[in-house]
Amino acid sequence: MIISVNVYNFESIVSKHAYYLRGIHSWLALTGAGISQASGLPLLTGDLQGLAVAELFESRLFLSNPSRYWTLYREVYRKWRLATPNAAHIELALQGVRVVTQNVDGLHRDAGTRELVELHGNLQELHCKRCQQVFPSTLVFRNSIPQCPTCKGDLYPGVVFVGEEIQHFSVAVDWAGQCELLLIIGTSLSAEPVRQMPEIVEKSGAIVFQINDNAELLVPRFMASIDTQMTSRD
Ligand SMILES: [Zn+2]
Asked: 131 and 217 share a domain?
């Protein structure tokens, strides 16, 4: 069962589950686009330069017209890199919570989360498949089609294309098996295989909460209330 937390039921949910929350030491957060809304992201719908932003995540344009693809990438990246982590990203980082994210905006990294799985990659990186090096995405401003500074090979975006295998899911599953509390933030879990995460967690006896809206407000409040519970136990 997923316990949904919102601004209306917050107090009652926290006090109803105070007994469980008191003993929790191991957290895992699973995040999606909703956590970055207050940071002015995402921008996954709509058009830029006459191209659907969604094309950024499909290999079709990248393979058929790399120059157009990178034009779109530059436009999106220019906007995205202005975004900064909001209170939800920051609180998770401050509390040392492990994070599994479906987002490619890199805001959990920017917030300082150390134990982080970015299932769909990261818009802040470019990869060279020839020499296996990783470079910052600022290289896209150097050439119309970015090249590896080391081997001159073509660079690939650091994001996972639709239909490609997501990254490090086995780590996410390990963490899910180890956590006592899973906090789902800003995602409806419509995509496989993340859809399975709550089930994996519940099998090991952990409790699952979900915050879909107002994450920047509710995540810090939620974590603070558990802190209070733990303090009052001592
Ligand atoms: Zn290279």
From this structure: no
Measured in degrees and rounded to the nearest 5, phi and psi for residue 93 equal -70, -45
Q: Average pLDDT over the chain, rounded to whole?
A: 90
Distance from the alpha carbon of residue 231 to the mean position of ligand 1, in angstroms: 52
Q: What is the pLDDT of residue 232?
A: 46
At residue 233 the predicted structure's pLDDT band, cuts being 50, 70 and 90, is: very low
Domain span at residue 104 reads 1-40+86-120+165-234
89 annotated active-site = no
Domain of 66, CATH number, reads 3.30.1600.10
* Cα 151 to middle of ligand 1, angstroms: 4
Please write down the long-range contacts of 22-25, taking CB distance under 8 Å and 24 or more positions apart.
Answer: 22/229, 22/230, 22/233, 23/180, 24/180, 24/181, 24/207, 24/226, 25/180
Kindly name the residue from 17, 89, 108, 120 that is annotated as catalytic.
120
In a shared domain, residues 99 and 46: no
Question: What is the structure's pLDDT at 234?
Answer: 42
Task: Say whether both 46 and 34 belong to one domain.
Answer: no
